[in-house]
Amino acid sequence: MDLINKRIVLGVTGGIACYKIAELVRRLTEQGATVDVVMTEAATHFITPVTMQALSGRPVFLDAWDPRVPNNMAHIDLTRGADVVLIAPASADFMAKLAHGEASDLLSTLCLARACPLLAAPAMNREMWANPATQRNVTQLRADGIALLGPDSGSQACGEVGDGRMLEAHQLLSEVIAFFQPKVLAGKHVLMTAGPTAEPIDPVRVLSNRSSGKTGYALARAAQEAGARVTLISGPTALPAPYGVMRVSVTTARQMHAAVMAEAASADIFIAVAAVADWYVKNASTQKIKKTRGGPPQLEFEANPDILADVAGLARGPWCVGFAAETENLAEHAEDKRRRKNLPLLVGNLAQNVMDADATELALFDDRGMHSLPAATKLDAARRLVAEIAARLPKP
Ligand code: CTP
Fold first, then answer.
1. Percent of the chain topping pLDDT 90
2. 67, 98, 175, 285: which sits with the fewest CB atoms below 10 Å from its CB?
């Protein structure tokens, strides 16, 4: 429940992307938000106020002369208690109204009268989006401090392909949740590793481990929410890339090492969460090993590069955070690892408790000793960890 106690005014304007808004209202309320839906007349041609009312569980507002509002001040009353106004979909027409400060219907009046931030998710045909008039309005809206979410690129309801597609409901939800997170990593480039690595034995078999990638992916999401540009070098996992995160998929430790080293120079922070295989199979077979070949295969191992140690050893490298998943003597092993790899911060957890679980309990090790964090979901723990990292970064 990421939106508890949050009040959102959701302005819906006319466009076929309205079909995604029913899902968005559902998802916002599931996260605990109170959603007041305000629709333009055009929007009601695409989706009904009854649908919006049923999903938000609240009255829907359609025009400035609503007899249900005794003081006739819905444009003021609705936004005074709101934390944010979200316009989705934001049509080309409505963006033009916003850019010119028009107050010609309830929604545009309310936007002008608001005392809270405004987010807008444009949705229109690609030619309408590319039109110089729309682009002028985009520039003006940004200059006025309005945050535009998307638009995305891809196939459009009209059959054309290009820019102007509204973000999906789950992406808009991620944007709204991120809007409420403190921007403690704004302007930072965070480079991360996550998940397991898999070392081939032959073309169909690998040596891997039980890392699910959940902790690393939660941390990537939390860093993105905190305003960072995040590059996530990920071993094989079943998880979708967190919204807004640049994911680079790799398989082996050596591929992970190369992908990290290619980005390390531009990173401000490196967080190594991946469970990297310590060795690879030197004599991996190019053909499938047959059991009829005679006896078990004799595998020869060679050490993999230590990605974290190599990044921490760079002359002007990023600020490094290591992870230690241990099955016993956590404090002793973790502090030993931190010193060995020369890290300002190492995060420890007990492996048997966290592998594939949705909750975790972390302990931080730095120059001042050990500091336990409360047990939490992996996402809440990740958000706390992002705050702890931000507080420890060297001041510029
Ligand atoms: N790490 C890495 N590259 C490796 C091995 C580990 O980047 N080749 C990183 C992990 O992502 C993690 C930390 O180093 O942040 C873990 O340290 P380490 O002790 O090397 O990992 P383990 O293999 O778990 O060590 P041990 O077998 O001694 O427990």
1. 87
2. 67
Alpha carbon of 182 to those of 7, 31, 186, 194, 345: distances in Å?
Answer: 17, 18, 9, 24, 21
Q: Which of 209, 301, 306 to mutate to test the pocket of ligand 1 (most atoms within 8 A of CB)?
A: 306
pLDDT digits (tens, 9 = 90+) for 168-225: 999 999 999 999 999 999 999 999 999 999 999 999 999 999 999 999 999 999 999 9
DSSP notation for 254-310: HHHHHHHHHHHTT-SEEEE--B--SEEETT--SSPPPGGGSSS----EEEPP-HHHH
Compute, in angstroms, the gap from residue 276 CA to the centroid of ligand 1.
Answer: 6
pLDDT digits (tens, 9 = 90+) for 146-155: 999 999 999 9
Dig out the tokens for 225 from the structure. Answer: 């929410």
CB 242 within 8 A of CB 223: no
Ligand 1 pocket test, pick from 219, 232, 270, 278 with the greatest ligand atom count within 8 Å of Cβ, gives 278
CA distance 369 to 372: 10
Q: Which of 18, 111, 158, 320 is catalytic?
A: 158
Share of the chain above pLDDT 70, in %: 98
Ordered domains of the chain (ranges, CATH) = 7-179 (3.40.50.1950), 189-392 (3.40.50.10300)
Q: Rounded mean pLDDT of the chain?
A: 95
Please confirm, yes or no, whether 320 is among the known catalytic residues: no
